[in-house]
Specification:
This protein is α/β, with parallel strands linked by helices. The protein is built from 13 helices and 10 strands. The protein has one domain: Aldolase class I (TIM Barrel). It is 45% helix and 15% strand. Strands 8-7-6-3-2-1-10-9 form an 8-stranded parallel sheet. Strands 4-5 form a two-stranded antiparallel sheet. Helix 8 packs parallel to helix 9 and helix 9 packs across helix 10.
């Protein structure tokens, strides 16, 4: 592996004022998205929707990279330009989701392990040939009164590190995504406890397996109240507790942290990122960025509604969400920016 190339790409992925679009929904997930607007999940409809996103004017000002699904990486625009090439022409780095999803963890009821290590080396080599420059692997950690077990955290951390090492071997920057789910009644303090325990295990494994930390991007959850918790923390508390957890667990050699939205509403995910970047009392060594899926796409998908006549408005809505999160990257997002858009 060329360490300098990995470090350069990783830094570009967390460039100031920019973040990453997660457009790597699995076949089942994209079907749910399209079902919500009564559009059949055919290959052509999926291609049309992704092309809508990728060809939106000016998103390269706010989007540094796009995570693609296997199918999408192999597709082309209506003008027959392969999507990785189309993105690269706009100065956007193409990436690829490489895990095979979270499955039941053997001998640990209610917990998950992410699969996909078998044959990964060969798949990575093919993805690099198809134009991918980075990869993504998501681990899922659930919280309840008993969970997560240390066993679950450890096996997922080990798999994340194996994936990261294989990615770097192939010259690809790994996005390391340990997601502590927000589903449940747990408090923000419980989320912080589990998040810290998870991050410590992940970086322990990354170090043991010789992963170049300067050549990765971390994609964690924010430290946030459980979705069913009676007391919901506000953006200021989320910002402080998230940055505190990261300062305790994430080495300064990591170039950037691109948060997942994890089921938050569009505006709340933006507000929380903005609050972190607006903190004066918690200096941090890494870029605090975003890698959102639904929080960037939901409003655009609704505006499109599967109708080509809605293309312009849908792209306008998508561009606005990108702009809002670009502003949150330096703490300058505001209600005024949020209300700027006017869709006809």
């Amino acid at each position: 592996m060329d360490q300098k190339v990995l470090m350069t790409i990783a830094s570009q992925m967390v460039s100031s004022g920019k973040g990453i679009l997660a457009a790597d929904e699995s076949s089942g997930t994209i079907k749910k998205r399209l079902d919500s607007i009564n559009v059949e999940s055919t290959e052509e409809n999926r291609r049309n929707y992704r092309e809508l996103l990728f060809t939106t004017d000016g998103i390269e000002n706010y989007i540094s990279g796009v995570i693609l699904f296997d199918e999408t990486l192999r597709q082309s625009s209506s003008s027959n330009i392969p999507f990785p090439e189309l993105l690269s022409q706009k100065g956007i780095i193409p990436g690829i989701k490489v895990d095979m999803g979270a499955k039941e963890l053997a001998l640990s009821s209610g917990e998950k392990i992410t699969e996909g290590l078998d044959g990964l080396r060969e798949r990575l080599q093919e993805y690099a040939q198809l134009g991918a420059k980075f990869t993504k692997w998501r681990a899922v950690i659930e919280i309840n009164e008993e969970l997560p077990s240390q066993f679950c955290i450890d096996v997922n951390a080990h798999a994340l590190a194996r994936y990261a090492a294989l990615s770097q071997e192939s010259g690809l920057v790994p996005i390391v995504e340990p997601e502590v789910l927000m589903d449940g009644i747990h408090t923000i303090d419980r989320c912080k406890e589990v998040t810290e325990k998870t991050l410590k295990a992940v970086f322990h494994e990354l170090f043991k397996q010789n992963v170049l930390l300067e050549g990765i991007v971390l994609k964690p959850n924010m430290v946030i109240s459980g979705s069913e918790c009676p007391v919901q923390a506000d953006s200021k508390e989320i910002a402080i507790k998230t940055v505190e957890a990261l300062l305790r667990c994430v080495p300064s050699s990591v170039p950037g942290i691109a948060f997942l939205s994890g089921g938050q509403t569009d505006a709340f995910a933006t507000q929380n990122l903005n609050a972190m970047n607006a903190l004066d009392s918690y200096p941090h060594p890494w870029e605090l960025s975003f890698s959102y899926g639904r929080a960037l796409q939901a409003a655009c998908l609704k505006a499109w509604n599967g109708d080509s006549e809605n293309l312009t408005n849908a792209q306008k809505v998508f561009s606005h969400r990108c702009k809002c999160n670009g502003a949150a990257r330096n703490g300058s997002y505001s209600e005024k920016i949020e209300q700027e858009i006017s869709v006809s």
